[in-house]
Amino acid sequence: MVDGVTTLPPGYAATVQTSFDGYAVHFSFGIPQGYEGPSGSTGNTGPQGEQGIQGQQGNQGSDGNTGPQGVQGPPGEVSLAQLNEAISATARNPSAVQPLAMVVSDPPTQAEVQQIANKVDELLAALQRLTEQGASSAAIRRRSTSAAKRITQGRR
Predict the structure, then answer these.
(1) Contact 5/29 with Cβ under 8 angstroms?
(2) What is the mean pLDDT of each run of 10 residues along the chain (156 residues)?
C-alpha cells in the first residue's frame, strides 16, 4: 500500500521507505523533480474571447492645441442681386450736407426761399438712392423750385 509520494528538488536521489504492520507493506516514495527543459515553440493563437463589460468613464483630459484654420465655407444665402436690391431701398449718408447758415427776412425773399429749396433738394438727394425707376435729381429740383415760387407768391 502507498502511503505517500513526495517531490524532491532536481538532482536529489529517489527514495523509498517501506514498513510492514503485520498485514500490509507500506511504501513512501521520494521522486526528484526534473531539470527545466528548453522552451517549446509558440503555439497557435486561441480563439477570440468574449467582449468584457464596459469600464467606467475616465477623467476629463486637458485641452489640446488649437487646430489649423479650416477651409472657407460655402457662400451665404444672399445673392448679389438681393443685396443690391436691399441697399437700393436704404438712405445714403447725409453727413456731407452742410447746414444752411442764413437769416430769413420777414417776409422771405424769392432768393431766400430758393436757398431753402436748394438745401432741401441737396438733403433729399443725399437721403435717396435713385434707381432707374426713381426720380432724377433734376426732377426733384424742378418740384422744389416751383414750390418755392408758390410760397413767395402767396406771402407777398
Answers:
(1) yes
(2) 92 92 90 92 93 92 93 85 78 78 92 91 76 48 56 53
